[in-house]
Amino acid sequence: MAPLLEVQDLTTRFYTLDGIVHAVNGISYTVEEGDTLGIVGESGCGKSVSVLSVMGLIPEPPGKIAAGQVLYKGQDLLQLDQKQMERIRGKEIAMVFQDPMTSLNPVLTIGHQIGESLIVHLGMGQKEARRQSVELLDMVGIPQAADRYSDYPHQFSGGMRQRAMIAMALACSPNIFIADEPTTALDVTIQAQIIDLVKTLRDQLGMAVIWITHDLGIIAGLAEKVLVMYAGFFIERGSVDDIYGDPRHPYTLALLKSVPRVDRTSKERLAVISGLPPDLLGLPPGCPFAPRCTYMVEQCRKENPCLEPIGFGHEIACWVDVTTGRER
Amino acid sequence: MTRYIIRRLLQTIPLLLIISVILFVLANKMGDPLASFGGRRRIRSDDRERLTRKLGLDKPILVQYAIWLVGNDWMRVDIDGDGIPDEYGTRKGVLRGDFGKSFMEKRPVLEIIRERVSNTLILMLTCEVVILIFSLLIGIYSALRQYSTLDYVFTAFSFIGYSMPIFWLALILMYIFAVNFKQWGLPYFPTIGMYDLAVGRTVGQIAWHMVLPVATISIMSVAGYSRYVRSQMLEVISQDYIRTAYAKGLPERMVIMGHALKNAALPLVTIVGMDLPLLLSGAVVTESIFAWPGMGRLFWSAAQDTDIPVLMGILVIISALVVIFQIITDITYTFLDPRIRYN
Questions:
Q1: Residue B167 contacts A, CB cutoff 8 Å
Q2: Whose CB among A168, A229, B93, B140 lies 3.0–4.6 Å from B71's, allowing a Cys bridge?
Q3: Does B175 score more than 90 pLDDT?
Q4: What's the domain range around A219?
Q5: Measured between beta carbons, which residues in chain A are less than 8 angstroms from residue B239?
Q6: Are residues A218 and A237 in the same domain?
Q7: DSSP state of A186
């Protein structure tokens, strides 16, 4: 059986006045029903663009999906026209964004904004949509949902707004739920609540989740499969245990070292990755991580490695075996 | 909310008093009302003295203002102009709804204004509707299809339209659609008045006569408004909540009409709120060129004749409307933007 979502060789570029920005460079992944996939990477590494491309939400121009396929249940979403895509967005694949403060329309009530997708996708009437919206608000843990239905976004706190965003995304019980750093703008206690909420709802509704974050700690407790992204490329892919227990790419290794941990002594200094991520306007010919990599060999400057399996379901894109420090 | 409205209304009283003092002084220093009293002939100097006394123009300016404001039925006035006060005056003053009599026409100012105001309203409300419809359509289109050919065309035309002097535009429209069309044997538009005297004041006649003046005023305003709508719309459609709306799978029409327009229209309310009271004052230039018997032309002729009571009547009514419409604008905001609340 074909996987629920199969992204093949997705390439997204932005044609700006300064030149072509290579935001996403031929990434491939699959999502099975009920899967939870984590995509990790620094800011500006193309995480958001990769999922916005899947949703067909890249502003064109300047953006353009230059190559690739996005197969949802075997159908290529990139070939669909606007009308057909509208039926997928929000109904089959739903998305929650990073900043709940700006992602809700300030002049429309929360209830109205949730009810809209019910009316558009499920053909509900006003009354039915209202009843269902209140139920959704209740499900995501908004107290006195019936009263809060007619509140405006500015009357909600940040955490509540993100809950409302989740209610909005879940309105039509989508098969895939994409969360684009939904907890970044929230404080830590609220973050934990939102993650728990998504976990509970995922298990309850049986949907697949794609969770994007730069926070490795969040992914550990949430995802089964993890993709590490750098400069628009996937550089390591594996199960949570692979990535956290046996990271094989120098970048993943460096990332994990830079996470503060409670079980280490406070005297130890936190490791940093020296240098800056490459400018996506002009990528060097070799491995994009080479200039910052401590394991770099001659080959790294010449050719960009592809993802290659090194174990069951564990793939890395690197010329070097970090366990020995020698070329593979 | 009621308290807020009452407070705002009370604040307008001192404001309007100050405005009226300034206007009164300016109107009186603008020229000599008696200069044109004799038509082409010069007035004899003893006649001039008598008229000055009769009209009360010999009194100090602040006394004149007081009479204009509260009337003169509490004091004896010089009826025959011989310098000796005769009997109590009849003027009630603006505060009691008496704007005085026109120097030229010797009729109550309010009566004169009332005759003209409906003509102006017919013209200007039509204009406002045309302006709003076209500027919204053009502005929204240009924003959604930014840098398309049609967007560039609209941009070019709005700069041309905006920078054209209105009298020139009026004359060009007259030249093309009246003069040339008549020569070419096409149906041509009338250039003056509200209706054909032979046919009478019918709806069809007024509509037909209105085409060119409405076109003149609208082209100018649409040029400015549509740019404004375009930039507002551009700003709104790049907001996160518009992306959210698209992510929900709403059709573009719903996103634009339901989500974007309401946000983009907020600043527009301010502009329309400031423009609406000015509509009542009419378009001075356009009404004069097309001989439209409205407030604008009345203002123009009153200014030429230094007909102070008429001038003051028009100016004070406009000032009051501007102030009141600002309050209405602020109240409208509370309905459009839930984040704004007054107490």
A1: no
A2: B93
A3: yes
A4: 5-223
A5: 102
A6: no
A7: S
Which residue intervals of chain B bear CATH 1.10.3720.10?
Answer: 112-336
Going by the DSSP 8-state scheme, the letter that residue A102 receives in this structure is: T
- How many CB pairs below 8 Å do chains A and B form together? 79
**Domain co-membership, A27 together with A135:** yes
Give B-chain residues touching A80 at CB under 8 angstroms: none
Say whether pLDDT at A20 is over 70: yes
B248, B338, B339: residue with CB nearest A168 = B248
CB neighbour burial string for A23-60, b if at least 16 within 10 angstroms, e if fewer: bbbbbebebeeebbbbbbbeebbbbbbbbbbbbbbbee
Q: Tell whether B243 lies on the interface with A, counting CB pairs under 8 A.
A: yes
| Same domain as A238, residue A200 | no
Residue B96: CB partners within 8 Å, gap ≥ 6?
Answer: B70, B71
List, in order, residues 6 or more apart from A200 with CB less than 8 Å away: none
Give contacts of B245 with chain A, Cβ < 8 Å.
105, 116
Residues 71-130 on A with a CB inside 8 Å of B are 82-83, 85-91, 94-95, 97, 99, 102-109, 116-117, 120-121
In terms of domains, do A148 and A284 share one? no
Kindly provide the ipTM of the predicted complex, given to two decimals: 0.86
A195-247 per-position pLDDT tens digit: 888 888 888 888 889 999 888 888 888 888 899 888 888 888 888 888 888 88
What is this structure's pTM? 0.80
